[in-house]
Amino acid sequence: MQRFLSTFRLYFFIVGFLAVAYFLELFLSGYEKYRLYNALENLILAIGLLSFCRLIFPLRLWPFFQNLTCIFILFIAILEGTYFLILGAVFSPSAIFIAMETNLSETFEFALDYFSFDVLFYIFLIFTSGIFIIRYEAKRISDFNFKWLYYVGVLGAIVGLRHPLIYHHNLPYSLSMGIIEYWATSVELNEQKTNKYGSFTDVSANLSGDELYVFVIGESTTRNHMQIYGYGRETNPKLTAIKDDLNIYKDVISSHSYTIASLTRALRLSDKIKGGNIIQLLNAANFDSFWLSNQAPIGLYETLVTKIGMTAHRTKFTSSETWFYKAPHDDVLLTHFKKFLKKEGPKVIFVHLLGTHAAYYMRYPKNFKKFDPDLKLSKDPKVDHYDNAVLYNDHIVREIINITKARDQKSFVLYFSDHGEEVFDEIDYAGHSIDQNITKNMFEVPFVLWQSKSFQKSHNIEQDINIKFSLKYLSHAIADLCGVQSKAVDYSKSLFNKNFELSPRIILDSINYDLKFNQ
After folding, report:
1. Taking a C-beta distance cutoff of 8 angstroms, is the pair 420, 220 a contact?
2. pLDDT at 320 over 70
3. DSSP class of residue 374?
4. Burial class (CB in 10 A: 0-12, 13-18, 19+), 192
5. Could you give the residue ranges of the DSSP H alpha helices within 115-169?
């Protein structure tokens, strides 16, 4: 028995380390079944790796590979545990998409907004526990006894990690799948970036040259914190003032709860990327296209949404002109927007706001601090910061409408958000998740249309503001609104069309939104 305990001493330390990590998560955040599966997966992986190293490598190399394995397990425990404590979800391939798209400014803001004492305490305790094992146990060379148990460890890991409940929680699996999917998507979008007209061959539009069509893309804005949708606070005084001139659609949702998945789907015409995007279609219809964004054009690499935006004839990214840790407020876009309007001919302009993206308190200037977090009138100060950001967003959208209206052209402004946001309304959390712990607020978005009088005269827009619609079919609606004719467009998917047909509103690729939330 003493020989057994001596031989497998490191294994027992690893089991203890992972148990400490799991019970600490349990103490800080409560019980979740999938975290138990995740802890079991980490244990199987650790035993499998240690056993494999002892079978493959000579005795003198054991300390090195035992150290390497322990460092790897420590990294996994800290990353997965921190992710869970902050977002209440398990690490998934979709998280890799977010990481690859995140720039330094967003990383800085995320850290300021979400890191708490609990998270720092967890990281400190797990890190010091892991370092203790690496420092005092991983370097120890034990006798090569009970060789058959190492084979059991390797075979057990191979079998165990193949179980669906286990491998979906495996970080190396999630990392590899996420990176593969991201690069495959990125390569396909790279082809679009250099082909501004796509493969569309049957495109036409009856243009007079006076067209000015503006699409304002919000960020992380739920309609449930907007006054024009019945929210109790005055977060939309400027849009409320022109409410009679707006079509305020009351039941529009995003297909995903994070920007990359939502916008890359909303801006293309089919499930397949090679089917082309809406900007390419508008280019083919002889519009001059413009992409104006206050979101950073790069994360670790050029973002997927940026690649779509780059198919426009002209682009401008205002956030790239400032220090990485301080993104400018959205009013920086207005000057460039006015410059774009000087271009003659039919125009489509996409304006991508930073909107109400976390950290909320950084999304508005001081003179828009209407709801004071210091008064503690809300459940959490973040609610006040978010409502102030919505108030400022109201100002920006109204300014874009005013500027467009002053041109006295055949024009419209369509405002929508890429996805919504949970702000302590349904759960005790502020933000949006990727594919777990979802709420209605993460999908329920504003969808507001302003039309000039000359545009109204020439277009018969469907006026049913209670129509159920998903941004998954946004490109078909945009093409219809812009008067584009093409076989690539399914007009039955456009909420602006009298022949609109309601399709199941699928979120996260497989969940029926109405069955989940509206029963």
Report:
1. yes
2. no
3. G
4. buried
5. 117-136, 147-160, 164-167
Question: Is residue 446 over pLDDT 90?
Answer: yes
**Mean pLDDT over all residues of the chain?**
86
Interacting residues of 322 by C-beta distance below 8 A, sequence separation 6+: 328
Contacts of 6 (CB under 8 A, 6+ apart): 142, 143
Domain ranges, ordered by start, for the chain: 2-180, 203-517
- CA 265 → CA 243, 282, 313, 446, distances in Å? 30, 17, 21, 18
Whether a cis peptide bond, with omega within 30° of 0, leads into 358 is no
Q: Are 62 and 54 in contact (CB under 8 A)?
A: yes
pLDDT at 243: 97
What 8-state DSSP symbol labels residue 148? Answer: H
On the question of pLDDT at 103 being above 70, the answer is no
8 Å CB contact between 278 and 247: no
User: Residue 409 contacts by C-beta under 8 Å, 6 or more apart in sequence?
Assistant: 210, 211, 212, 452, 454
Separation CA 349–CA 413 (nearest Å): 9
196: Cβ–Cβ under 8 A, 6 or more apart, which residues? Answer: 279, 280, 283, 311, 312, 313
Entry pTM:
0.81
CATH entry, 203-517, from 3.10.20.30, 3.40.720.10, 3.40.50.1370, 3.30.70.270: 3.40.720.10
Contacts of 238 (CB under 8 A, 6+ apart): 394, 395, 397, 398
pLDDT above 90 (res 54) = no
Please give the single-letter amino acid code of residue 356. T
What is the DSSP-derived secondary structure letter of residue 346? Answer: -
Mean pLDDT of all residues in 6-33: 77
CA distance 411 to 414: 10
Nearest Cα to 424, choosing from 381, 394, 391? 381
Identify the sign of the CA torsion 75, 80, 83, 85.
Answer: negative
Residue 77: the pLDDT is: 87
Cα 109–266–293 angle (5° rounding)?
45
3-class secondary structure, 104: helix
